[in-house]
Design brief:
By secondary structure, the chain is an alpha/beta fold. The protein is about 35% helix and about 15% strand. The chain has 18 helices and 14 strands. It has helices at about 1-10, 15-40, 45-50, 110-115, 135, 155-160, 180-185, 200-215, 215-225, 230-235, 250-260, 275-285, 290-295, 315-320, 340-350, 390-405, 425-430, 445, and strands at about 50-55, 120-125, 140-145, 165-170, 190, 245, 265-270, 285-290, 300-305, 325-330, 350-355, 375-380, 415-420, 420-425. The strands form 2 sheets. The protein has a 7-stranded mixed β-sheet with strand order 2-1-3-4-5-13-14. Strands 8-7-6-9-10-11-12 form a 7-stranded parallel β-sheet. Helix 1 runs antiparallel to helix 2 (about 15-40). The longest helix has 23 residues, at about 15-40.
């Protein structure tokens, strides 16, 4: 309106015919401007118009962002074993496959992409506690992106602080760090990049099974300062002939079974959905209707189910002591599926011969977490699904989901966990409604150590 009136006002002279004509022009200009204003969409504050995406990623390498990588390329994966296609965003990536994308400086390769859509991107590793950077940005966050490896725990309290939040997106697999009940109550979409790193995790499981049973970790440490072969051999066994069972036979569990078959082991599984008969015959699988009946016969149990209220603390003291004495547990699913203190006690008294995994609760684990110091463990930080190969796929998947979200196109069913106020897609098939984020505030202790 000011721009329309300014030149007309300058042309007006008091007490003149020209002034009367000018006043008529002003009235017409005002009427036209009001009409245009009524047709225009309502104005919003600049920040709200842009839309804020808050991305929580793990810290950069302690030695700095790598100037070059160990390899020049990674294999191209376009389709997964079940026929599902790898992520297919409409926009071309502005990063090289095999780049370090999962840390703060990597930004999941999103900055240029989001800027081209007029979105503001905030990337931080500061996620825990009321004074964290994540908490400061929640009031105007439209999308919160997080990882299973460095989860931003989206509790009911945090969701209540984010009135503009429309989506919680996992760069990876597993959305248990989101209070799904609270997200559904607020009609927030929850999505993840299903299958992007399932094979990565399955490879990690096989590595950990072999590392535990063959006593690899202590044996490697001996090389640094000694050569006592008996110290290494006294806890080393062959995997051949052992009974190996998986809790859940989904994408990861089935991939573990396929990779363990060549070791000439006896394979077992339990799942709420039984595998097709031809798959059972191909792998010579023994099906168990429940966890209890399987763990009593297995030498190695690998946990590959999602965390939800129905699996929280599944491996408590009672379950662990139903297992064979000297059995092994490998857990790359979620730390909270196992009772923290019961695992440590079973290693101390010898009920378990070993425990390996890369999942903890909370994450990062506080300095006094007993799994850091318990005997006969092969724990790592949560790294199984964030190889450089996997990072390319989950970064591409995040981009595909965001494109669909902003363009109003359907998100793949396999990527959906919750939508329209209820569990959806993969979430409806794999999760129970509820919340498993209780206790996540302890993650702040890691920062305070």
């Amino acid at each position: 309106l000011v721009l329309i009136l300014q030149p007309i006002r300058r042309s007006c002279r008091p007490h003149s015919t020209r002034n009367m004509l000018g006043q008529q022009l002003v009235r017409r200009a005002v009427s036209r401007a009001v009409g245009l204003a009524q047709q225009a969409p309502p104005l919003r504050p600049l920040g709200a118009a842009r839309g804020k995406v808050v991305c929580v990623l793990y810290d950069d390498p302690a030695t700095g962002f790598p100037p070059k990588y160990a390899r020049d390329s990674i294999p191209e994966i376009t389709r997964y074993p079940d026929g599902q296609t790898a992520p297919t965003p409409a926009s071309a990536p502005d990063f090289a496959p095999g780049a370090l994308l999962g840390c703060v400086s990597g930004e999941l390769g999103l900055r240029k992409f989001l800027a081209s859509r007029g979105k503001e991107l905030v990337v931080t590793a500061d996620k825990d506690g009321p004074n964290s950077e994540l908490e400061r940005h929640l009031p105007d966050a439209e999308v919160v992106i997080s990882q299973p490896f460095w989860p931003a725990y989206m509790t009911a309290e945090r969701i209540a602080k984010a009135p503009n939040l429309r989506m919680c997106l996992t760069a990876g697999i597993g959305s248990d760090h989101v209070d799904l009940a609270a997200a559904c109550a607020k009609n927030i979409t929850v999505a993840e990049v299903t299958f992007c790193n399932s094979i990565s995790v399955a490879e990690h499981v096989v590595m950990m099974i072999l590392g535990l049973v063959r006593n690899y970790i202590p044996s490697k440490q001996v090389v640094a300062g000694g050569w006592n072969i008996a110290d290494c051999a006294m806890r080393s066994y062959d995997v051949e002939g052992m009974h190996v069972g998986t809790i859940a036979s989904g994408r990861i569990g089935l991939a573990v079974l396929r990779r363990m078959q060549p070791f000439d082991v006896h394979l077992h599984y339990t799942d709420r959905r039984r595998l097709p008969e031809d798959v059972e015959k191909e792998l010579n699988l023994t099906y168990h209707p429940d966890v209890e009946s399987m763990v009593t016969v297995c030498d190695v149990v690998t946990i590959n189910c999602p965390l939800h209220p129905g699996t929280e603390h599944m491996f408590n003291k009672e379950m662990i002591y139903k297992m064979k004495r000297g059995a092994y547990i490998v857990n790359t699913a979620r730390g909270k599926i196992c009772d923290r203190d019961a695992i440590a006690a079973a290693l101390e008294d010898g009920q378990l011969a070993g425990y390996a995994g890369d999942v903890w609760f909370p994450q990062p684990a506080p300095a006094d977490h007993p799994w850091r110091t318990m005997p006969n463990h092969a724990m790592t930080p949560h790294i199984s699904g964030t190889s450089l190969s996997a990072q390319f796929r989950y970064a591409q998947g995040v981009r595909e989901i965001l494109e669909c979200f902003y363009d109003g196109r359907p998100i793949r069913d396999e990527y959906l966990i919750a939508q329209h106020g209820r569990l959806a897609g993969t979430g409806a098939a794999s999760y129970d409604p509820g919340n498993t984020t209780d206790g996540s505030a302890e993650a702040a202790k890691f920062k305070a150590k």
